Predict the structure.
Amino acid sequence: MKSFASFSTRLQQWLSQRRLLLFGCVIGLAVLAISCATASRLILAPPQIPGATYVGSKSCEECHEKITKEFITADHARLQAPGKNALAAGCESCHGAGSKHVESGGALNTILNPRKNPETCFACHLDKRGQFNLPHSHPVLAGKVSCNDCHNPHQGEGFAGGKSLLTRDETCIKCHAAQRGPFAFEHEAMRDGCATCHNPHGTVNAKMLTARNANLCLKCHVQDANSSVLVGGMPHSAFLRTGTCWTAGCHEAVHGSQINSTLRY
């Protein structure tokens, strides 16, 4: 009888756990369904231009023919809402209602210019606002750099240089010319692009690096973590505990070197 009571208790515990698990799965599926449903109905209010009304993207084509022709290739073209009520809103999704701009013959103060105000971009790219608030970032919030300096919102994937990794890096090289090369001894990571080591919007690490100290290098150079190679009479691995690989006279030429194959200088 005691054995049966013990079995009954364990059975009840098992059934209780199963019910909790089933309840948790139902709740999870419900949350997922609600999230998917609301995501497809996300509504973003366009910038407000006091006193202006919406005229539709067709009105923009009369003066901005080249931009509107290229816009069909842009990721931002997905914002274009077809239909009579939407007036094929595309340009006005980011620039605001355009009636005053049209009536004035294109006066600059009658339309919103995202180049001068990143808030338009942050309306959709909320994560980037957070990254620009991190300790090390491009000075977009200070007004010294604009989103348009690196991104072309009217064409392709939005990179000023183009789609490929090579041309994306050309965007960085515009300002960081010293890192262009060519180098006699290149750092192979440069072939994979600047974003291999840097987050261009901002990070908690110095130089906008994606990881701090030697951990960044060890993502690729994992074999050096336990290397027996001696450096100055000490095991190479001992230096990894002192901080970064690119300081203290070690691999300082991290982008490439003209005179040293180990990127020492």
Observations:
- Confidence is low (pLDDT under 50) at residues 34-42.
- The first helix runs from residue 2 to 39.
- The two ends are 82 Å apart (CA to CA).
